[in-house]
Amino acid sequence: MTEEEKKAHHCEKELAQFIRSGAVRRPEQAFGDYYRGRSASCALGAAYEGMYRLPTQAGGLRPTKDLEWFFDCLEGSVRKCPGGDNCKKTLSLAAIMVHLNDDHKWSREDIAAWLETLK
User: Fold this and answer.
1) pLDDT in tens, 3-48
2) Which helix (H) or strand (E) element contains residue 24?
3) Is the dihedral of CA 37, 40, 44, 48 positive or negative?
4) Residue 28 pairs with which residues in a beta bridge?
5) CA-to-CA distance for 75 and 97, rounded, in angstroms?
6) H or E element: which one contains 3?
7) pTM (2 d.p.)
8) Distance (Å, rounded) from C-alpha 105 to C-alpha 29?
9) pLDDT by residue (tens digit) across 62-107?
């Protein structure tokens, strides 16, 4: 494994840890928004919340710029959708995570587990 591949894998493993941490703070999953009410977040919203302490009402908050700055793998890598045989999408890692969350309804834990398998 090259140094670049090790760095990318580290990025994805750390991102998975932040998703899990943020999901503890907002135990329900949001679809179509980063945050819903006081207790729901999507996978990317959970990652952001795992990094920062957010206000209870985080509706309207869009964390993508901060996440992309910290995790260059989000926009710096392209992935095929692991959501099923019929899905042929190939997008940036960030877009695939949104797709898995909103379209395939993968849990944040499942998305985190998938991130840890990436090389």
Assistant:
1) 554 444 568 999 999 999 999 999 999 999 988 888 899 999 899 8
2) helix 3-25
3) positive
4) 40
5) 11
6) helix 3-25
7) 0.83
8) 9
9) 665 567 667 889 999 999 999 987 999 999 999 999 999 999 999 9
23/41 Cα distance (integer angstroms):
7
Pairing of strands 78-80, 90-92: antiparallel
> Token pair of 101, please?
């969350």
Which two structure tokens, joined as six digits, stand for 38? 């006081």
Question: How is 50-118 classified by DSSP, letter by letter?
Answer: HHSPPPS--TT---HHHHHHH-THHHH-EEE--S-TT---EEEHHHHHHHHHHTS---HHHHHHHHHH-
- pLDDT at position 6 is 43
